[in-house]
Amino acid sequence: MSNLSEALARGEFLVTGEIGPPKGTNIEKCLEDAEHLRGKVTAINVTDIQSAVMRFGGLATCHMLVERDLEPVFQMVCRDRNRLALQSDLLSAHVLGIENVLCLTGDHNILGDHPDSKPVFDLEAVGLLQCVQTLMEGRDMAGNELDGAPPFFPGAVVAPGSEPVEMQIIRMEKKIAAGAKFFQTQAVYDVDQFADFMGRVEGFGVPVLCGLVLLKSVGMARFMNANVSGVNVPDRLIARLKADKEKTKSGEAAIEIAVETIEGVKDLCQGVHIMPLGWDHLVPDIIDRAGLA
Amino acid sequence: MLVTERKPDEEILASVQGDASVFLVGCNGCHSACERGGAEDLPALAALLEGAGKAITGSTTVDFLCDKSLVRSRLRAFTRQILRADSVIVATCGVGIQCVADSVLKRVRPGCNTINLGGNHGTWGATERCAECGDCLLDKTGGICPITNCSKSMVNGPCGGTTSDGKCEVDRQRDCGWYRIYMRLKDLDALDQLKEVVGPKKHGNYLPSYDVMTGEHWATDAPVPAAAAAAGKEGDDE
Ligand code: SF4
Ligand code: SF4
Fold this sequence. Notes:
The complex is a heterodimer. By secondary structure, chain A is α/β, with parallel strands linked by helices. Chain A has one domain (about 5-290): Alpha-Beta Barrel (TIM Barrel). Chain A has helices spanning about 5-10, 30-35, 60-65, 85-95, 125-135, 165-175, 190-200, 220-225, 235-245, 245-250, 250-265, 285-290; strands at about 15-20, 45, 70-75, 100-105, 155-160, 180-185, 210-215, 270-275. An 8-stranded parallel beta barrel of chain A has the order 1-2-3-4-5-6-7-8, surrounded by 6 helices. In chain A, strand 5, helix 6 and strand 6 form a beta-alpha-beta unit. The longest helix of chain A is centred in the C-terminal third of the chain and has 14 residues, at about 250-265. The radius of gyration of chain A is 18 Å and the shape is globular. The mean pLDDT of chain A is about 95. Chain B is α/β, with parallel strands linked by helices. In chain B, about 30% of the residues lie in helices and about 15% in strands. Chain B has one domain (about 5-140, about 200-225): 3-Layer(aba) Sandwich (Rossmann fold). Chain B has helices spanning about 10-15, 30-35, 40-50, 70-75, 80-85, 95-100, 145-150, 175-185, 225-235; strands spanning about 5, 20-25, 55-60, 85-90, 105-110, 110-115, 165-170, 170-175. In chain B, about 45% of the residues are buried. Chain B starts with a strand and ends in a 5-residue tail after the last helix. In chain B, strand 7 and strand 8 (about 170-175) form a beta hairpin. The interface of A and B includes residues 106, 119 and 124 of A. Bound molecules: iron/sulfur cluster (SF4) (2 copies). One iron/sulfur cluster binds near residues 94, 133, 145 and 148 of chain B.
């Protein structure tokens, strides 16, 4: 059993972090980012060719975390692999010591740095969850028996800010039916909206970790508002980032906003998933100041 | 030309499980020209459905179901019979089924799978598109194709990328297919349909069986008799 599944079962309010593999072979910075999180988070997500921008592989990175005694959450998207490769990588992941798998559909190729690549999407997140479930039961998707079945702790994502939210909730129910045991959310800045959402999914009985993306600049906040569906950085936060440029640049503003959000959602969900986008060194401070250490 | 073939009887009967009455629509265009059905489909479908205890409120065949103006003017004559039915079964290609679905506020169910292009497309005054996936899902999606209307061909609902005005994040000019499917099913009071887990998709059906390919020397090759072609197709994909 993974630490993540055990901590969630105990009902603890927990924190997960995230690292992104590099474009190239210099993996040191990425592993350093993970080191900042040691002892502070329950598990660390490793992104899978994030935003469809080609980079170092998630499976290898997860394995390196396992070797360093850090617990990974292996993110898998359906954009780049068909069901043969997805199943094969899942078997490999188990043997490499990976227990947590986060099943995602993935950003479209058009939005990445290889827009002419062929989108696969043989499965999408719901199908991938079913696939994980099937392997866990000792069969492959074609019904053949496996010589050794991998136990996993599968999770999925949900976007509480995406409209119409009913559509997101129906899909969340399907993901649960397909085997999702925990959820991490898209970045949340609007605590009231998140509270409404949690009110509607409370009855599902599956733990939700509220997503936090550290706000690095006014430009980034504006970019997310314009381009990332379901993410809404309120004007008052943008005004705060604008008001004290030094604080924004040093990351102090990002820390303060994250701590406030954690305080706002603490009684609503079972933890937070912090996506520092390279500012992993700030995460220990956030956790301490939010009183989660 | 779009080559189509009747869906298996079990699949058609499963789709109308909750319906007491059905209206049938057939097509005299490609579906009939590809020698895999057409006008003769409707009596066969009617017999199948009546055998399962369904009432047929009416049926009609339109020359080209991919021509929406034609669909609308022809179906107008059947308004009452269509309204009396719980659903409409359309035996033709994915484009024709979507054109009917866009013309009547009713659950529209596919009677056929669209398996390949066959040859020349006609032109049609419609925005509906079909990717000839061979595993038609229109029954589950309110008659709007998720394969061609969703940038990721999602089959179980939207990714998180629907914008607040219902567009797709991949291309903000285009509508999010799943937003449209959601609105259509909501209008039909059939949102429960969205809760069914669909797939994984039978991508094996994308590869059309050899008997629907025409020969290299088409004009002089002997035609494949429809009956033999149908027999050859049996048990191909599953
Ligand atoms: S689901 Fe779409 S692509 Fe597949 S046969 Fe139906 S209309 Fe065509
Ligand atoms: S935004 Fe809508 S159409 Fe675009 S990929 Fe997502 S679900 Fe499909």
